[in-house]
Write a structure and sequence with these properties.
single chain, alpha/beta, Aspartate Aminotransferase, domain 1, Aspartate Aminotransferase, domain 2, 2 domains, seven-stranded mixed sheet, four-stranded antiparallel sheet, 12 helices, 15 strands, 40% helix, 15% strand, globular
Length: 388
């Protein structure tokens, strides 16, 4: 059945973080879609609401079956039931794992530019951020394996957080790249937490590879964070999962999540996840096609009107990474200028690490009419910026 992604949804006045902005502003920053949730999810939540009693909840068998079925069918990854642990979110899982699997003063390696909250989960827990910048050549990103191994080899480095697919650059890591990362991490006794929250938001025809599915080495050293929250826009329902194949590592993570009290679902977390993962496939596939068309629209618009901006090629996420180095060395100034002059609110790249300083991140998970408005504001703002 067709789904209407063009229909606007007024989110102002609903307590939405993304839309907590001025009346004249257009937020295209935080990774939050402006589409209504899939009908199957809303129907499941309505049934739960109509029941009328919202006491303590358990994690039922159908939750495990939903994750196993989705990852087995969609991603070719045979997850065993015992590998899964419920969690209220990927970020709580990351922070809990950092506290449990490392000690204060140790290094946690990340590949920058990368999701800014990784920095918080590390620093707020008294650990050191160790950046291994991605190689950026001819407008394309890849892993700098020489730098990666040198930093994994540091005895103080005990944990790595992998972003797969990578936010903000939109890169899907291929199987060989993941195998090489796993081999080096294992060689230097480093555990890998793989944040795979964006895995279902790939371009049509593109497929991501779960880190733990690559080989036995990757499986043994991995903690994988999974969730329907990005693909189905359910972040506010606090529903995620952690997949840990190794029993000893899994016990440590399970203890961490329970100690931090983030391993119990609210009344709506399980019904939403089960509905998404068992009935939401058709909706998601149409969404992916819609987002891909939005991506093509941005590419054509920039080529025609804003050739100064380089759109980094991507295969996943609805977050586009704009190279603004032809305009400025630090895009923070450009980001502030655009917001002040046009109301367009983008994410400045410096928050994703020093390697992202000359970039802006653009969220295109919105109706075409909204996207057109955003692109026109971007063009107007850049033209004003060049005239100043």
């Amino acid at each position: 059945m067709p789904f209407d992604f063009d229909a606007p949804v007024d989110r102002r006045g609903t307590g939405a973080l993304k839309w907590d902005v001025g009346e004249h502003e257009l937020p295209m920053w935080v990774a939050d879609m402006d589409f209504a949730a899939a009908p199957c999810i809303r129907a499941a939540l309505q049934r739960r609401l109509d029941h009328g009693v919202f006491g303590y909840s358990v994690v039922p068998p159908e939750w495990y079956a939903a994750y196993r079925g989705w990852w087995g069918t969609r991603h070719g990854f045979a997850i065993k039931r015992d590998w899964l642990v419920f969690c209220t979110g990927v970020v709580p899982a990351l922070s809990s794992a950092v506290r449990k699997l490392t000690t204060p003063g140790e290094n946690v390696l990340i590949q920058t530019p990368v999701y800014n909250i990784f920095f918080n989960s590390i620093r707020n827990n008294g650990r050191n951020v160790l950046e291994s910048p991605l190689r950026y050549e001819s407008g394309v990103y890849s892993v700098d394996f020489a730098d990666l191994e040198a930093k994994l080899a540091d005895p103080q480095t005990t944990l790595m957080i992998l972003c797969n697919p990578h936010n903000p650059v939109g890169k899907i890591w291929d199987r060989q790249t993941l195998a090489d990362i796993g081999r080096l991490a294992a060689k230097h006794h480093v555990t890998v937490i793989s944040d795979e929250i964006h895995c279902d938001l790939t371009d049509p025809g593109a497929e991501y590879v779960p880190f733990a599915s690559v080989d036995e080495t990757c499986r043994r050293i991995s903690v994988t964070c999974l969730a329907p929250s990005k693909a189905f826009n359910l972040a506010g329902l606090q529903s995620a999962a952690v997949c840990v194949p190794d029993p000893v590592l899994r016990h440590k993570v399970w203890r961490a999540l329970n100690t931090d009290e983030v391993a119990e679902p609210n009344a709506f977390a399980v019904p939403a996840a089960v509905a998404a993962l068992t009935e939401g496939g058709p909706w998601l596939d149409e969404l992916r096609a819609y987002l891909y068309a939005n991506k093509q629209t941005v590419a054509a618009y920039l080529k025609l009107y804003l050739p100064q901006l380089h759109l980094v090629p991507s295969q996943a996420t609805y977050l586009l990474w704009l190279d603004c180095s032809a305009l400025c060395a630090d895009a923070a100034d450009l980001q502030a200028f655009l917001r002040a002059k046009t109301g367009l609110y983008l994410s400045e790249g410096g928050q994703y690490g020093a390697a992202g300083a000359a970039f802006l991140r653009l969220n295109i998970a919105c109706p075409r009419q909204t996207l057109a408005d955003g692109l026109d504001r971007l063009r107007d703002g850049v033209e004003q910026y060049l005239r100043q």
